[in-house]
Amino acid sequence: APMRLFEKGQEHFNELERILQSGPWPTRALEDNLADVKAQVAANIRGAEALRALARKYGLETFATYLEVLRERASSLMAAKLKTLPEGPLRARQVLDDGHVIEVCLRNQPSGLIVDFSGTSSVHPGNMNATPAIVSSALVYVLRLLIDESIPLNEGLLEPVRIILPVCFLNPEFGRNPETAPAVGGGNVETSQRLVDTLLKALGIVACSQGTMNNLLFGTDRFGYYETVCGGSGAGKSFHGASAVHTHMTNTRITDPEIIEHRYPVRVNQFAIRKNSGGSGEFIGGDGIVREFTFLQDMELSILSQHRKVAPYGLQGGSSGQPGKQTIFRKHGKIEELDSVDGTQVKEGDRLVLETPGGGGFGKEG
Question: Containing H/E element for 195?
Fold first, then answer.
């Protein structure tokens, strides 16, 4: 159940430690977990202090007034933009690599935009379930892209919008028993990306980007390493896609090879553009990358990704980008291709070659 880390000035990190160390699968890295949570708390405290400083500088009434102005500005800009869009219905369908389907229908009415996810697949048996908060975040992001003005993200963008979200893997029922609740680990990092794919396809404004964060994890009982890896962005009506970039629902940077090799028993053999992996068209999709590791000791390896079976779509006659893939080259010659969501034991001398997806092209070539 949810708990408070702070209540009436008292912190409850001891209780959090107890929870992390209990249950059938206690944490293997307590100090790392606590440091992560404390960093998030520190970021929130820093933000609160900055808001208080603004209120002190300009006065509480002026501060509150401008907060309201920002919300109203976002709402009015969104409403004005919606008037320029077709009535619809604008429909799109995207299929996860495991066959689960996201369906969306956009209907632009005088009262506002209706975003209907009816027809989306039921609860996911793995960890690709999302939540209404994830759906709202992806939708706000896409709506913000429609507004050609620099405004801060806020809920004013959703005021002219109504979301219809039935029970599905974007909105599962969790119940009271955490042991039987749907898993959401991949919902935040992967399903959110596929949500953006689907919404952008319905609007038809840009081809599909790599649509995944290529979550790569390796480690032992002694250490763990986790990174997300860039790929190609989709082309649009007047621009080529960018190569080797993070896109859409992500905000991470990758670790320098020198630091990885200094701190972990791996060697980074290659980190290069995956040439010609972007889709062709009048405007070309961005290329993905090739990232290659050699493991210097035995460890566990996991991958959580998308667009390994389903290619990132092109638009208006543009070609799809190349799907990604991940291949293990064993020290003694055996070659194994991993699935979108997969894990394996690697031995000293084994190599991983990770190839991330390219973005889709836009418009007919030539």
Answer: helix 192-203
